[in-house]
Amino acid sequence: MKRCPRCEKTFPDSETFCEADGTALVQAGPAFAEGAAATGAIAGGEQIECPVCGGKAQPGELICNFCGARLGVESATPYARQPSSAPPRVTPGGATVRRDASPSMRITGRMPDGDSEEEGRGRFGAVWYVIAAIVALGGGAWLALHLSTTPAEQPVANASPAAVASVTAPAPSGPLVALSKAIGVQVTGESAAAPERNQETARKFFEDHKDGLLDSYSRAIAGDSTLRDGMAVRVRVLPNGSVDEASVRTSTNANPAFDAEIVKDVSAWNFAPFSGGPVEIDYPIIFTNDPATKDALESQLSSKVAGMSPTEAPEYASAPSAPSPAASEAASAPSPAAVESPPMVAEPAPTAAPAPRKRHHVASAPKPPPLTLQQQVKLVLGSNPRTRRVDCYTSGSTVTIFGKVFDADAKLYTEKVVRQVPGVGNVIDSLSTDTADWAARQAAIASQIYAAGLNSVTVKVIGHDAYLGGTVKSDAQKQQAVTITENASPGVHVRGNIITVVPGNMFGF
Questions:
Q1: Total domain count for the chain?
Q2: Residue 446 is assigned to a structural domain of this protein
Q3: How high is the pLDDT of residue 367?
Q4: How far is CA 406 from the centre of its chain?
Q5: How far apart, in whole angstroms, are the C-alpha atoms of residue 105 and residue 110?
Q6: Helices (H), ranges, 393-471
Q7: What is the phi/psi pair of residue 88, to 5°?
């Protein structure tokens, strides 16, 4: 047997809904089965056919057990007319509503109002459940996307300090001066293993004193932003800590002027003095303003150093300082006692004629050491007004000249003068000219004047002076040409302005 959980009525197993309130029936125990049998005996009669699905119902049933439709025939049995024993329902306003099968329900087959409310609430709750599920799914998708795009933290608990620094240190920016890791610092000499001169001490000294090299490189790239270089620099350190020789053995970008600046900087270094002997330290130095090129420069420098022979002349070397004439004379002059006290002369025999006194001469100072080839060339260049701005460095009998002269004729003249110096075998010309600089300024100014629409204006630049000519249509355009000229090239001033103003016709032509 089945029973109604709301009104506690019992029904046969073939029924599905309560005929009084339409509640779904549940399976009843033995006690309910007996009551249902008694009730069925009382009801008796013929079965009723459902007008919707054609299912059979017992006499007195109001709801079809198969489709839930209202049956058209109302049973007159007391069981069918028994009122519902469901407890009353209290509305929010405080009114009590009793749940019983009203005539309208029996006629229309609709659920009571209370059931309709509960059904509406169930549907409303289902809608909220769907919305909550959609929100949860969206939140989960956002969290998964966030976790997939957020980089995982690097494990640093067991990492060495060097590894942590390599992960967290920001990439350097701007000019960079650093030692090449591919080659390393090399120390040679009888005291190379001493703590005051070993590789670690030499490396630490470089890190503490590389600011001067960085300043020189910053000044160099101010004039040429593409300058990047790898150098093998050698310094010879005396026991007192001073550097008596410095040279650029090789470099990836031959630049005599920059080599000279670096050699000058390292020659001024002073190491800690100690009681050992002199040593030679080779520093592989990288100069770059683009950290991405550092590895390439290290590779190029490694290849050049590996291809050098031990006896190969350096690319640039500092000239040894010659002793001053005063020092040479002081070193070679005899002491005052030696000059003032002539050697004793034996007295002549009484019978012999007096011997003439010998004249004693002070020994002349030794001759200074001969000049190097580089010193000879610099002496010749400095004594000529046309070549005073030219410098040089030597590698064997090859002389490289750099600096600035007036024009192309002056370049040829300078090369000819250097070739006439004894010992010069080859001359490499790295000179620049004033006229080339003037032409570049003139072209830049002319381009901007043309872009401004002043097509009939001409410009000539000589040094820092500009001379304007041509025609314009108004005084405003004439003044505009002056403004463009002085702004296009800093340091250039208009010294002559012979632009003619030719007004146009009434249509502006």
A1: 3
A2: no
A3: 72
A4: 42
A5: 5
A6: 408-419, 434-451
A7: -65, 155
